[in-house]
């Protein structure tokens, strides 16, 4: 029984977005852009030949523009602005939110798990949840930032392990993900997620005065946490950060993408790189965990949107150049066989940043460490590091 190769969104982005095939589709888009740019001039010329704008208007009215007076330009379907209105995006997000809420309220009644909506500075509603230890004294707070295309409830097991060790846990679905507002899998700016994280950490701190607060981030979530922690204000409030497979090193396979990505992502931010997500590299060696991940409707499995990919490139460039400014204590964990984010970049982070730091590299492990068969040992490492600091 062949299980279809499954992959994570980030790997699609990194491996697929930069492949030659994708470049070809990007060039196609650029071609179409040039066509569109030429069109108005041609149109205007014709109108002036007709000498009467009013007449053109009438022609269109009576003959539906079919008489040949109105030039018809055909553009590839892929670049036609999506018909989906803000309304249908909202509806889709509302359906996701219902699902996210159901996961929380239908959990084991012995668990204190709650959700709320958090309003971002931009006015988006973000889905937040918390897990509170039942019979343990709370020693610290852990804030979880999930990876690209997934959502906070995927960290349910991890959160419960943390609870059992005296940590209260908060998770946020970032914009375009899980139970939060926005087009599924679309991130217009990762700085939104950075800002939302900062804002929410403020609230967590005010609700848990005196407790040490830690941020955990996986993959792109790790990059978001890192960028936030580079802000001196955040660095002062946070007792430490934990990063699994952070998206610090992500090299485009073709340098021309670096030139094209900003242009295309600006013009057609939601343009999807077709065929992403099917043939990417697996992120775990546990086939069951992969099936669970990719059959979850709250996990985005559609093609990567150009803007989202460009944003990840942008944040990794930022981190590469700025990571030496990092001061907060950190624990970074990375699988040596990770093909989505580069373990060498974690090594570089370890070499260049902070003074209180720990790195754990795992021979043979892939990208999603917390769904690898060795997940219990990974969680043990994280909990041990945390316990040492409270
Ligand atoms: C590094 O950080 C500085 C200050 O925030 C910023 O201006 C600069 O653009 C960053 N470097 C990159 C490559 O983004």
From TrEMBL:
Residues 138-374 form the Serine aminopeptidase S33 domain. Keywords: Membrane, Transmembrane, Transmembrane helix. PANTHER family: PHOSPHOLIPASE-RELATED (PTHR11614). It comes from Hibiscus trionum (Flower of an hour). The chain crosses the membrane at residues 23-41. It comes from the Eukaryota. Gene3D superfamilies: alpha/beta hydrolase. Residues 51-66 have a biased composition (Basic and acidic residues). This is Serine aminopeptidase S33 domain-containing protein. Residues 50-69 are annotated as: Disordered. The keyword Transmembrane helix applies.
